[in-house]
């Protein structure tokens, strides 16, 4: 059974809350004030809590929105560009997502009260969604000979994530360029006939 559609004003309030929360969380991370988020969104605290029962649910919704957009962009980019260029453009979006969401990620993890040695289930789901979005781009680039054949989506995304988290956020683009030079196929990497 599908949930009933939200009223238009309730949907607008939710979107304004998500926009205000994203900005506050990106700027202040775990220190972002829910009161300030509600105020910037132009709603009261009761409205905020009607949409998001806790700080953790609000943070999760902001991150969900970003992951959804990142995954959607994989298909859009893949349809609009040649395979190698599409993969590179999307990896740049992945790097931008990671560098721009550092404080948001920390805020999400600060609210996790599960075992320290396991990822929260929602993080596992986000990773799965990103791997699924990456796979068609990677496979198309491999078929076109634009990227090494011995990489799978998990490996490529692990390398991309490491690049995005290494050093300062301003270095991430350069680090990605270096990584991409390493994943371009050479004659020795070509698949056997």
Topology record:
Blueprint: H1 8-28, H2 34-41, H3 45-51, H4 55-80, H5 83-100, H6 102-110, H7 121-143, H8 153-165, H9 172-183
End-to-end CA span: 51 Å
**What percent of the residues sit in helical stretches (DSSP H or I)?**
over 70%
- CATH overall fold name of the largest domain: Tetracycline Repressor, domain 2
Count, helices: 9
* Content-based structural category: mainly alpha
Largest sheet: none
N-to-C order of helices and strands: HHHHHHHHH
**Low-confidence regions:** none
Describe the structure.
This protein has two domains: 1-53, Homeodomain-like (Arc Repressor Mutant, subunit A); 54-189, Tetracycline Repressor, domain 2 (Orthogonal Bundle). It is built from nine helices and no strands. The protein is elongated, with a radius of gyration of 19 Å. It has helices at residues 8-28, 34-41, 45-51, 55-80, 83-100, 102-110, 121-143, 153-165, 172-183. Helices cover 71% and strands 0% of the residues. The termini are far apart. With 193 residues, it is mostly helical.
Quick structural summary:
By secondary structure, the protein is mostly helical. Helices cover 71% and strands 0% of the residues.
Task: Provide tags for this entry.
193 residues; 2 domains; 9 helices; elongated; Homeodomain-like_sf; transcription regulation
């Amino acid at each position: 059974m599908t949930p009933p559609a939200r009223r238009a004003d309730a949907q607008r309030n939710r979107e304004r809350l998500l926009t205000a929360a994203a900005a506050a969380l990106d700027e202040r991370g775990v220190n972002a004030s829910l009161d300030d988020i509600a105020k910037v969104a132009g709603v009261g605290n009761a409205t905020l809590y009607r949409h998001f029962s806790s700080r953790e649910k609000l943070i999760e919704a902001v991150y969900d929105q970003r992951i959804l957009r990142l995954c959607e962009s994989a298909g859009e980019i893949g349809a609009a560009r040649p395979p190698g260029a599409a993969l590179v453009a999307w990896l740049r979006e992945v790097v931008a997502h990671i560098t721009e969401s550092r404080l948001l990620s920390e805020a999400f993890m600060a609210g996790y009260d599960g075992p320290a040695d396991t990822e929260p289930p929602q993080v596992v789901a986000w990773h799965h969604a990103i791997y699924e979005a990456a796979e068609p781009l990677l496979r198309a680039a491999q078929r076109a000979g634009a990227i090494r054949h011995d990489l799978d989506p998990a490996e490529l995304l692990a390398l991309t994530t490491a690049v995005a988290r290494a050093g300062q956020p301003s270095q991430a683009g350069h680090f990605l360029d270096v990584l991409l030079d390493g994943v371009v196929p050479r004659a020795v990497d070509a698949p056997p006939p």
